[in-house]
């Protein structure tokens, strides 16, 4: 049996995806391509959605920023997630310039939530905490700040 053409138009499919959650343009384009739409239909659907402001990479990046901060992620992890979703680098830079998050305080809050006031009494425990904070997307200076602060209390 040969592959069937999709039952709904590319526009309808795109609107369906966007009605569930925001998407980056690249992500939506890939989903439509996977469903079997031709490139011209996909481009037309994406242009249509952008004309009505249903598809907006800047809005999507802002949502990803807020979501990442709420999840306890650092700047590096959020940027990586945006890149993976296909958000353009200039939009990522703009979102981070507009954001006034203190990444050092974000790191401290994450460390405090995860580890409480427990002691870092062994090198192994210190390494474990560093790895956790790196995985969350904090840089070396932010991690040092967050973990040293916990030691002082």
Automatic annotation (TrEMBL):
Transmembrane residue ranges: none
Domain RecX first three-helical as annotated: residue spans: 10-49
Origin: domain of life: Bacteria
Domain RecX second three-helical: 56-93
Keywords (A to Z) from UniProt: Cytoplasm
Residue ranges annotated for the RecX third three-helical domain, each copy included: 100-147
Function: Modulates RecA activity.
Listed name of the protein: Regulatory protein RecX
Encoding gene (name): recX
């Amino acid at each position: 049996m040969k592959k069937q053409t999709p039952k709904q138009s590319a526009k309808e499919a795109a609107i369906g995806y966007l009605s569930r959650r925001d998407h980056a343009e690249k992500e939506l384009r890939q989903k439509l391509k996977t469903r079997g739409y031709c490139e011209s239909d996909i481009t037309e659907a994406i242009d249509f959605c952008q004309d009505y402001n249903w598809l907006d990479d800047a809005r999507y990046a802002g949502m990803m920023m807020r979501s990442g901060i709420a999840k306890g992620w650092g700047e590096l992890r959020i940027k990586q997630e945006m890149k993976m979703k296909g958000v353009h680098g200039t939009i990522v830079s703009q979102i981070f310039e507009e954001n006034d998050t203190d990444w050092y305080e974000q790191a401290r809050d994450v460390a405090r939530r995860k580890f409480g006031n427990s002691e870092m009494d062994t090198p192994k425990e210190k390494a474990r905490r560093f790895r956790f904070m790196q995985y969350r997307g904090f840089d070396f200076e932010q991690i040092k700040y967050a973990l040293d602060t916990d030691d002082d209390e």
